[in-house]
Amino acid sequence: MNHTHFILLDDGTLQSYNIGDYRTRLAKTIANGRAKQNLPIPIVSVLFEGGEDSIRSIYNALRRNIPIIIIN
After folding, report:
1. Where are any strands of DSSP class E within 1-72?
2. What is the rounded distance in angstroms from the CA atom of residue 45 to the CA atom of residue 34?
3. Whole-prediction pTM value?
4. Averaged pLDDT for residues 12-36
5. CB of 66 within 8 A of CB of 28?
6. Which of the residues 23, 31, 57, 64 could staple to 41 if both were Cys, CB 3.0 to 4.6 A apart?
7. pLDDT at residue 36, rounded to an integer
8. What integer pLDDT is reported at residue 15 of this predicted model?
9. Alpha carbon distance 61, 63 (integer Å)
10. Is the model's pLDDT at 1 over the cut of 60?
11. How far is C-alpha 11 from the chain's CA centre?
C-alpha cells in the first residue's frame, strides 16, 4: 500500500521548530481512534537530516513507542 496522505504541521512561529510533541500526540490520537474500530493505522516517524531540535522529536516519538527512520 502506498502512502496517499501526508499531514504537515506549522504552528506559525518563526525560527522555532519545536512542534514534535504535538505531532507525536496527534499521530497517536489518530491511530488510537481507528484502532478502536479494529482498523489499526501504522505510525512511523521519518527524520531527514535535522538539527538540535530533532533530538526532542526523536525523544517524543520513542517515548510513545513510535519507530523512527533517520536519513542523513
Report:
1. 45-48, 68-71
2. 18
3. 0.56
4. 70
5. yes
6. 31
7. 65
8. 67
9. 5
10. no
11. 15
> What is the structure's pLDDT at 60?
81
Residues forming beta bridges with residue 69, ordered by sequence position: 46
Residue type, 70: I
Distance CA(16)–CA(6), nearest Å, equals 21
Of 18-22, 27-31, 59-63, the range with the highest mean pLDDT is 59-63
Number of Cβ within a 10 Å radius of residue 61: 22
pLDDT the model gives residue 19:
66
Closest CA to 61 of 10, 32, 13, 19: 19
**What does the alpha-carbon distance between residue 17 and residue 15 come to, in Å, rounded to a whole number?**
7
Query: Where does residue 23 rank: exposed (0-12), middle (13-18), buried (19+ CB within 10 A)?
Result: middle
